Automatic annotation (TrEMBL):
Annotated SUPFAM superfamilies: Acyl-CoA N-acyltransferases (Nat) (SSF55729)
EC numbers, comma separated: 2.3.-.-
Native source species: Amnibacterium endophyticum
A Pfam family that the UniProt record links to this protein: Acetyltransf_1
Keywords assigned: Acyltransferase, Transferase
One GO molecular-function entry: acyltransferase activity
Protein name as annotated: GNAT family N-acetyltransferase
Record keyword Acyltransferase present: yes
CDD domains per UniProt: NAT_SF
Length: 152
């Protein structure tokens, strides 16, 4: 695939249809069950000033071909604020064209302009394609991630 100009911008209300297609693809990639309530909820979050999650989209030739969801987080250990990349997804037809790199780079630029100390994210250990990109733009940390489900 040839390199074409990729523009990254904040997600906007007019992106709903294409964003939802990509977000469903992201969920399918991570083997999450289809759930339109989740899709609708996350879309609402992205446009709610009371919710910390924000979104970016990447466009190529006027078509949205990638998305990223991020949020600020406080770092008590350093007394700083970082940006946390929750989700990153590129349309399979646009992979290898620099879309993921453009989204990560745009988030790093935002972090720098806001005086944030780090951009942090996790990925699946077996996501080799993403890890090739990530290894080229960041350093892997020695930290292990844990999830604890609250009792109900």
């Amino acid at each position: 695939m040839t390199e074409q100009a990729i523009a990254v911008r904040d997600v906007s209300p007019g992106d709903l249809r294409r964003w939802a297609e990509l977000y469903r693809g992201y969920r399918e990639f991570y083997r999450l069950p289809p759930d339109e309530q989740v899709v609708e909820r996350v879309w609402t979050w992205l446009h709610d000033d009371e919710v910390e999650v924000r979104g970016l989209v990447a466009e190529r030739e006027g078509e949205v071909v990638g998305l990223a969801h991020w949020r600020r987080f406080h770092r008590p250990s350093s007394g700083t604020v970082g940006l946390y990349l929750d989700d990153l997804f590129t349309d399979p037809a646009a992979r290898g064209a620099g879309v993921g790199r453009a989204l990560v780079t745009a988030l790093a630029s935002r972090a720098a302009s806001e005086g944030c100390s780090v951009v942090r994210w996790i990925t699946a250990e077996d996501n080799a394609a993403a890890r090739r990109l990530y290894d080229g733009v960041a350093r892997a940390t020695p930290w292990v991630t844990y999830d604890l489900s609250p009792e109900r």
